[in-house]
Structure formats: structure tokens, C-alpha cells
Amino acid sequence: MVVALAAFGVLGGVSYNHLNRIGEALRRAEVADDLMNDILEVRRYEKNYLLYAQREDFRETIEYTDKVAAIIEQLAPPESPGLAREDPAFPALRARLGDFRRAFEDLVAAAPGSDEAKTLLRERGKDLMEVAQEIVTAQREGILRIVAALKRQLLVSILSTLALGLAFAWLVGRKIISALHLIERSTGRIARGDF
User: Fold this and answer.
1) Residues 6+ apart with CB under 8 A from 106
2) Alpha-carbon gap, residue 51 to 87, rounded angstroms
3) C-alpha distances in angstroms, 149 versus 10, 112, 144, 154?
4) pLDDT for residue 79
């Protein structure tokens, strides 16, 4: 009984840990999705600027670039490598964002319609999107790994509980049957007159 309670306690603790990890991973995935949406906004305003060359689109692109930079700093500050150590794409995203912003500012400073500056900006934007997509994918895969570990743990616990239950039933049954055999032998001896 004590072993069963201890096993259920351990199972509960491990399950609770997995659920906490899933909650944290979902929070990070939500932030990564927000990050991706903001990068898409950066790219949308970039395209608008390339099409219409309006100052408002330049300002919005810079604002969203700053917003993305703030999210990156929140998730993986340079001085604290916590999440960056888990996912090396964050430092790469920080670098790609800086490259994009410099290319965008260079385009604005360049002669209007500079095809070389536009091409460079598009390449930097594409690089930015690829790294952001890597982060989103890594966050989702992390959740799936935790869920798979929880599934394995639950399967092992179910099989272990069944095995322990069968072993316990076998031991108890054996004890009961041996006690019944003893009673049967004793009763037989008494019936033969051996008191």
C-alpha cells in the first residue's frame, strides 16, 4: 500500500512537472507567434514603402522593427543567455533584424529607385523571415516533445500499475491459497481422527 502511494506520488509529481513545462512552452510559442506576426507587419510596411515610397510606411516599418527588437530582448537578452542558449536562433534573429534595419535605412538614404538597395533589402527581409520561422517551428516542436514525453510517462505508469496490480494479486492469491491448503490439510487430519 505504501509503495502504491509512493508510486502515485512520484507519478503525480512527474506529471505536474510535464504540465508546467507545457505551460511554459505554450507561453513561449505564443510570444514566438506574436514575434512572427510583427515581422510580417515589418515586411508588409516594407513592401508598401517599396511600392509607394511614403514616409508613413517608413515610420511604421521602423516602429515594428523596434517592437520586434524589444520582444527579442525580452525573450533572450544578450547578457542572459537563458533562452538563447536553448534556441540559438534568437541571436541570429537579433543580427538579421539589425541587418534588415540597416538595409532599409540605406535604401531610404539611397537614390530613389535604387534596384541594388531594394534587392539587398528583400534579401535581408527574407533572411529575417527564415530565422523567425525557425524559432516558431522550434517552439512548436518543443511542445510536441514535451507532450510525447508525457504520453510515454503515462503509458509507462499505466503498464507499471497493471504489472504491480497483477503481482500484488498473484502474491495475495498465493498466500490465500496456501492458507486454504493448510486449512484443508488440517481439516482432513481432523476428519481422520488426528486431533
Assistant:
1) 117, 120, 121
2) 35
3) 15, 55, 9, 9
4) 64
Q: How far apart are the first and last CA of the chain?
A: 39
Question: Is the pTM here over 0.90, yes or no?
Answer: no
- Alpha-carbon distance 161 to 195, whole Å? 45
User: What residue type is assigned to position 28 of the chain?
Assistant: R
Which cell goes with 150? 508525457
* 49 close to 57: Cβ distance less than 8 angstroms: yes
Residue 142, pLDDT > 70, answer yes
CA angle centred on 123, ends 94 and 62, rounded to 5°: 50
Secondary structure of residue 110 in the 3-state scheme: coil
